[in-house]
Predict the 3D structure of the following.
Amino acid sequence: MVTRSTFALILSTFMGMTANSQSFANGFPFALPWNDSATVRFLPQFPRVALTDQDYVSIDADGHFNVRGNPIRFFGVNLTADGAFPPSNIADGIAGRMRKMGINIVRMHHMDNPWSSWSLFAGQSSTRTINESARDRMEYLLARLNENGIYANINLHVSRTYTVSDGIPEADSLVDFGKYLNYFDPHVLMLDKEFARQLLTHTNPYTQRTLANDPIMAMVEVTNENSLYRAWRDGGLRTFAQGGILPFRHAMMLDSLYRSFLMSKHGTTQALADAWNAGTSGASATILPVNGLYETAYPWTGWSVEKSGTAQATASRTTSSPYQGTGAAAVTVSSADDTDWHLQWKHVGLSVSKDSVYVVTFAARADSTRRIGLSVMNNVSPWTWYGGTSFNLTTNWQVFTFSFKQPESLVGTFRLSFALGLQSGIYYFDSVDVRIQGTTGLDPTESFEAQNIRRIAYTEAAKYSNGRVADQSEFYIDLQKTYFQTMRSFLRDTLGVRVPIVGTNWNVGPADLAAQASMDYLDNHAYWDHPSFPTVPWSSTDWYINNTSMVNASDGGTIGGLMTAVPMKGKPYTISEYNHSYPNRYQTEAILFSSAYGSFHDVDGIMFFEYASSGSDWTVDRVANYFSLHRNSAMMALMPSCAFAYRNGLIAAAQQTIELAYAPSDYLLLPKNESGGWLGPTFVPRTVSLRHAVRATSYAAMSPLNTGLLPSAPNAPYSSDTKEIMWDPAGLFSVAAPRFAGASGRLDLHETARIGPARITYGSGFGTFTWLSLTADSLPIARRSLLTVATRVQNTGMVWDGTTTVRDRWGSAPTLMEPFGLVLEATIMADSIRLVSLNAFGQESGPGTVLRSSAPHTFSLPLDLPANNTTWFGLELLGRDSSGGIGDDTNVPTRTQIESAFPNPFNGQTIIRFTVSKRSAVTLRLHDMLGREVRTLVRSEHAPGTYDIPLSADRISSGVYYCVLTTATMVDAHKVVLVK
């Protein structure tokens, strides 16, 4: 037996740095081959079965994706930009390796981008013509994916950059790929339809099918991360001159559409006034003193500069070109860092009253284009944040407004802050005013006749009546809803698309989701520690990450935002982008977190962002960027076990679902009282989704939500209602299901933690491990199982600048794995086992080590990564113990037959055991008493041996069924009885 102290001494020879260091020494190579598709004994099996006309994806009555009458979950990745167009001579290797890793869907993303060498529009004079060479590469890849049983998620509009030749006069001025125009510019809608036709109705020469008529296309995404409502919420739906992102023509187009919407709904100016003025409470009242005119010498009462980290700034009074009066405040930021709130120009000492509406008005400019944040909060513990937003400053004075409804009274502790910490320079403020505000409706000067009824900003909504705010929200939501339904009808009815269609993703609260409630399924995105770019978007040198672990997040991290009432009852739900960004040293937690909670919330698809985005690094042993996973062995090593667990439902779904039926008033009036942060508002604490499932049921309920009946936030540590998932923000996340267990965190700080049948007795730092049964048996009796331990990787020569960035010093090949050690004390029902290290192909590196129990059913498993040059270990039971543990399974059966079902009758699950005497194509199906096929359990080639296949009672009614085993030469059947 290897003791903890002995193992620590062995590992210390490989560890040149502490667990908290950014770089590590003595790393070892473990490069998972880019084109490996070989079947091996100690990795889970994902057979190569091509997709046929029987394999189209549909949606079943329970609201899940379905193929051949059986629910299917998708575990996948994104191929982005050049990555979606690999050379044809390596496409087969790429597809085969994906299949081996457990990937069964690829999201084809940024195929319409303007920057890569290979794009559907590369080298074209406009975006109305397809690059046929790029299309050919893409279609060849799709054919190879099909042969491996891998589906495709086809994205239509992602990063298409319109040109003047496309008929968009302002094309050169459009920002963010011209997003948001889809929803209201009829010419852009025409372009979207045209591209969809070009992409989906072209015959692939390698399959002789169009995508619209090819089972490989599992789903269609209309437009990526494109929310008109979010753009309104972020202040973007204004002209450039007003600090927005719209050309003048498109802002005027929105104004005209808004007036038409109001005319259609209300008819006359008087009817509009009656609706909007109902319940108003008059003009603003008390002006609260904030000394915002800066007419006297600095300092000013209540105002100060708050500095944190390395950021530095000073404040002074300037008399040069104030907005009003004779002076203005000038805040000079001499040293910025990577966190905006590290420098704040703040005012403290105000008093506010509960349920009153307040309006902050201020004038601001800067010495160059800048973005600042505004927040209102309590200046003492618990430092409650009440709301905030951000504004774009120019060199000219602009007046900004932010309104909010105060949820609690404060006496002398209310704080107004401007966050300036991301960019050095000079910021100027004048005429800062905070006042208690009455609500107003239609301004006396506004009318249909004058055509001057304006669209209000999200940040000023609190000062307007319910009627006006609801109409403004409804307008943006209806524009989105109409566009989605128009595109869905075109795809389905005109182009013949037969698979599920979604509108967009990266949703912000129930208002955004209401616009998509009529689509076939819902989709969302989330990242932990996405890189930030303080000055220039996607700068190669000026970027940073926080480099923190989500394990320590007590607010639910990404899970709360993804799962809290974003899924909708009766519809599939996917997460088509997810990652914890490299080089975050804790990123391996991402695979376990998403797989575990994805299973718990019965999510229908998880697609990691990304597999690859470059066309030149397929075979290079180097992690290329923040997101690319295909050469990141620390992340890829976890995929086979987590993919198998997720795709096969080894982690149980939630026992209880909290259901939210929204009335329109619940979300149309959110701008008046919204403090949800960038994730958007929620009516249930986000941590509730760590205990139960939380799904929306309707966005058209007759009665508003009774928030008094909704659950409160659970206390940490968070345990799922299935008891299989435990999240302790003190530093450990764990999963313990019968056939799958795992943990992520500072394993060295949790050396007594028990995870299912295993207990940690030694860990050398932060790491993630999984233990997967490779048979239908639970872990303690599984004949074969796979242990994976992953930490982090770094490129050779990668150089950190502090703890949050490597700038452009990413290093070169080879990529090295951090030395790491883990010892588990495992309960295994045997008297001896074999522990064998696996090479980068998953093959056994040697005979392994035979271990005997240190106590009845107790084994110490030393998982020494650098000593064995691996992250993978195979575990095999050798001897049968006195308690009936499973023995050697190497004897070849003499007959092909179904041997047993146990238990039988059964309730939750039974195990079907069958034997195969010679290599055969085997099908195992479940039929009802009338002979109708209920479920396909097995459909693949099997070597001689004994196989245990779980049969879950999920979505099957009580009754008598027959399991039918079929090969080319025989048929065998066995009766099973389900009793619920």
